[in-house]
Amino acid sequence: MLGGTEKKFGYEWDIYREIIPLHEKQFVEWISPVPLSFFKGRRFLDAGCGIGRNSLWALKAGAASAYAFDYDGRTVRVARENLKDFPNCEVGFESIYDISFQGEFDITFCIGVIHHLRDPKKAVENLVAALKPGGTLILWVYAREGNERFLRFFDPLRKHVTSRIPPIITRYIAIGLTALLKVYLLFPHCSEYLKRLKERSFRHAEAMVFDQLLPEIAHYWTRAEVAHLVEGLPVTIKHLTHTNGMSWTLIAEKAVVQTVRIQNSEDRIQNGI
Ligand SMILES: C[S@@+](CC[C@H](N)C(=O)[O-])C[C@H]1O[C@@H](n2cnc3c(N)ncnc32)[C@H](O)[C@@H]1O
C-alpha cells in the first residue's frame, strides 16, 4: 500500500530533481569498497531509485542493463527523464514488497530506502531473491554509531514535528536549519565529513536537511542490527563498512547453489552398477 513516506519523498524529488557531480562522489562512497567499474557488463536492480541519481553512474560505468523502480509516481517520472539516454534501463513504478524477480540480476542495490520501511526484512528478502547465484547485494543505511548526538537533539524534531506537518512547512524549516548549518560550517572542523559538507551549495545542503526531516520512519541501526537484516538468507556478508562514520554499507554475495545429481535406479542399471 502507498503510505505517506513515499508521497513525501515524491514531494522532495519533484523539487530537487537534478543530478549533479556530487551525486557520483556520494554513490561511490555508499557502495565502497565495490568500485563503479564493477557494474561494467552487469545487469543491476536499483530498488527505491528516487530520481535515478545512483543508477546514472552505474549505467555510465557500462552496466549491461538495469531495472530501477520507485513507489511514487512523480519520482518515477523524474527518474525516467533523468535516465532517458539509457535505453538499456527500464524505470518502473513498483513497491519493493511486491517485486517478484527470481535470480535475474548480477547486482541489486538499495540506497537510503530500507531504513524508511515498516518491514525491512521482507524488502531485503525480495532483493536477495532477485539476485543470480553469486550475485552481489549492496545496501546503504543510516548508522546508530556516529549519530548519537544527532539522534538526541535533532531526530525528535523529525519524529514529533516535521514528519507530521505539511511538507511545504517542513521545507521552510529545512531552509532555516540549512542557514544555521552553513554558519556552523564556517568554523574550522576536524571531521572530514563536515569539511566536505562545506562543498555543497546551499540548495543541495538544504535538500539533505529536508530529506532528514521528512520521513515518518527513520531507523538508525547498529552494526549488529544491519547484519541481522540478512540473517537466514542465502548470502554471505563480504563487507560491513562504517561509511563516513555515520552510515553502514553492507556488501553480501549470494550463495552459488551446487546442483547434485542423484543417481536414480535407471542410471544405475544403464551403468551396470
Ligand atoms: C531517501 S530516498 C532514496 C532514493 C534513492 N535511492 C537515492 O539514493 O537517491 C527513499 C526512496 O525510497 C522510495 N520508497 C519508499 N518506500 C518504497 C517502497 N515500498 N518501494 C519502493 N520504493 C520505496 C521513496 O519513494 C524514495 O524515492
Q: In what order do the strands lie side by side in the largest sheet?
A: 3-2-1-4-5-7-6
Q: Which ligands appear in the coordinates? A: S-adenosylmethionine
Instruction: Please mark out the parts with pLDDT under 50 across 5 or more consecutive residues, or reply none.
Output: none
N to C succession of SSEs: HHEHEHEEHEHHHHHHEEH
Structural class: alpha/beta
- Total helices: the number is 12
Helical content stands at 40-55%
Q: For the terminal residues, how far apart are their CA atoms?
A: 58 Å
The outline comes out as: globular
Question: How many whole angstroms does the radius of gyration measure?
Answer: 21 Å
Q: Major sheet, described briefly? A: 7 strands, mixed
Number of domains: 2
Text of the CATH class of the largest domain: Alpha Beta
**β-strand number:** 7
The amount of beta strand, in percent, is: 15-25%
Give the CATH superfamily of the largest domain: Vaccinia Virus protein VP39
Task: Assign the CATH topology of the largest domain.
Answer: Rossmann fold
Mean pLDDT: 91
CATH architecture assignment of the largest domain: 3-Layer(aba) Sandwich
Oligomeric status:
single chain
